[in-house]
Amino acid sequence: MKKRFNRKKISLIGAGNIGGNLALMAAQKGLGDVVLFDVVPGLPQGKALDIMQSFAAQNIHTQVSGTNDYKDIDGSDIVIITAGKPRLPGMSRDDLLDINAKIMKDVALNVKKHAPDSVVIVISNPLDAMVYQFAMISGFEKNKVVGMSGILDSSRLRTFISMETGVSPYDIRTFVLGGHGDDMVPLIRYTYVGGIPLLDFPGITKEKVDKMVERTRNGGAEIVNLLKTGSAFYAPAVGAITMAESILSDQRRIFSAAAFVNGEYGHKDIFICIPVILGGNGVEKVIEINLNPDEKKALDKSAHSVESSKEIMTKKGYLT
Ligand code: TXD
Prior knowledge:
Structural class: alpha/beta
Mean pLDDT: 96
Bound molecules: 1,4,5,6-tetrahydronicotinamide adenine dinucleotide
């Protein structure tokens, strides 16, 4: 689809559960024209037509189109990648590595060719490995590539805190650092209910906080086990579209997101979830917050898990 005068162009690589919801959400937020791409013939076209047919009742004036041809993503301002298999019950995110690394290599080469000036948000799992692989294969500047992880993990923790305190999750703030895996690092010391530190909120105990942290770490698996046929997709789509809006409208909002580190937090040449400012240039700034010894130890453990999967990717030739 040709870029329309002065409208942003959002291309979604993967028209599955998350991709379809991203297309509808982008349209409802008026972010720009949307191109939905997938390798399955008819899938993106069908979902795009269905979404377009909802506009008459929604007062929406942008375009959504579906395609199996990468040339239709030419000139995209932002590309959001969900191409790949989701988990099934009993699978870890890392179990998806071989399947999704082969897919991501193809996607990265095509995005490099057709949308070289875009900012890319990677969602596919295993997230930290997939976002790194995309950056290496595409050769994009590192600030133009970011992974959607911490905003989802933070949303899960905020939801559990809301259930416990009765406060709207919208008024709860937190950060989650590290890999998007079982050793992710929710930072309780930086978690606030309104302006009240979580551990000072009436009725909150360390035991309750530990339970909410554990449930956050298992948040993805909890939904996979309930759905049985795939993984979460509404909250991941909202997380990604919120990041995309901050980039497309240069809002410069702060998120927990998988970004490239070059010495920050004591780690180099990996993507891990850290606080970042997202604006028109993608990752505008990596925010290095103070960590106490326990927090730093937990982050290092999580970062080492990410480094191990990077070594596997290197050995298997997925990074070239
Ligand atoms: O926090 C996070 N980052 C995670 C990520 C949160 C939830 C889901 N997470 C992962 O996103 C999940 O483990 C998957 O790896 C992706 C996409 O999840 P989704 O639920 O959208 O999976 P679907 O519904 O199976 O959609 C994937 C689509 C499907 O339509 C395939 O045909 C398509 O990807 N696909 C491809 N598109 C483009 N190019 C290629 N090569 C390709 N192969 C498959």
